[in-house]
Design goal:
single chain, alpha/beta, Rossmann fold, 2 domains, six-stranded parallel β-sheet, 10 helices
Length: 218
């Protein structure tokens, strides 16, 4: 059984504007200077607590926990107000449809919350295509392989025919730690040389190119 596991933010959807806005709000409410946008982009994909630890390393555990909750509150408020967009990258919807029709099992492994991922996929009508949805709510932060291991178990997939697709070094390192193919994409939040250095088997430069790379492990 072949399995394609997708990261979400920076791979399926371009959510950086929403993430940066919520991060700015969280830090501001806490009385801290918000991180630079590029710094926030760097931590996309990690669990929220780990992201806060990296963005504010001098802070104590409780401050990181407080920032995590403030971020969740800010993001939820934006979603309630209809301000969250999270557009799909061009061609992603068609790719998911095609892979599903071609017999691929599909999964998501993301630093998002269960609620955030469910809302994102439902908004784009993609939920039905995925057999496993793994989030930071129930797993250690990337690059721990826990999410991939659960996806493989849920799908009954062959590890040798499993690919993790993502835009950050955390995704690629997670793939390496799980012993599956790691495919990077160049339209997300980390640079291509970083993905290569992290151990990516290949880098997709477009959605059609990603489809071709996946054919190579069928």
């Amino acid at each position: 059984m072949k399995l394609a596991i997708f990261d979400c933010d920076g791979t399926l959807v371009d959510s950086q504007a929403d993430i940066c806005a919520a991060m700015d709000a969280a830090f501001s409410v806490a009385g801290l200077v918000p991180p630079e946008r590029h710094a926030t982009r760097r931590v996309v994909g990690l669990s929220l607590h780990e992201a806060m630890r990296q963005l504010h390393p001098e802070g104590e555990h409780q401050l990181h926990a407080d920032l995590t909750q403030l971020y969740k509150d800010a993001f939820r408020a934006r979603r309630t107000a209809g301000a969250v967009a999270e557009p799909l990258y061009d061609g992603i919807a068609e790719l998911i449809e095609d892979l599903s029709k071609d017999g691929w099992q599909l999964a998501v492994a993301t630093g998002k919350s269960d609620r955030g991922l469910a809302h994102c996929l439902a908004t784009h009508g993609l939920t039905k295509h995925f057999v496993s949805l793994q989030t930071a709510d129930r797993h250690p932060s990337k690059p721990d392989p826990s999410m991939i291991e659960q996806c493989i178990a849920d799908a009954g997939a062959d590890r040798a025919r499993t690919a993790m697709i993502g835009d950050t070094v955390y995704d690629i390192a997670m793939a390496c730690n799980a012993g599956v193919t790691g495919l990077g994409v160049d339209w997300g939040y980390h640079d291509v040389p970083e993905l290569v250095e992290a151990g990516a088997t290949a880098i997709a430069t477009s959605v059609p190119h990603l489809r071709e790379l996946l054919r190579g492990i069928e």
